[in-house]
# Entry
Amino acid sequence: MKIAYIAVLAILVFLACSSGATKIMLMAQDTDFFSKYGFSNAMLMAFGAVQFIGGVMIVIAPTRFWGAALVAVTFAISLVLLVIEGSIGFAIVTCVTLVLLGLVMQQSRAR
# Structure
C-alpha cells in the first residue's frame, strides 16, 4: 500500500508542477483557454505559480496537506472551466485527480 501511495504522490506532483509550469511559461493552449474566462497573463502566471508551489509542497511531508489543498483549489477551478467548455475527457481526468488529492489530504491529516 505504501508503494501505491508514493506512486500517487509522484503522479500528483508531476501533474501539479507540469501544469503550473505551462501556465507560468504562458503556453499558447493555456493562454487561449483561460483568456476566454477573463484570466490575464499575470493572473495565469500567478495561478500557475500556486499550482507549482502546491506541487512542491506535496513532496514535503509536513506541508503535504496544504500543498494538496492548494493544488485541489486550482484544479477545481480548472474543472469548472473545463465543464463549461464541454471538454469532458479532461474534466474526467481532473476529477480523478481531485479525488486523489482528497485522499492525500486525508492521509496527511491522519499522520
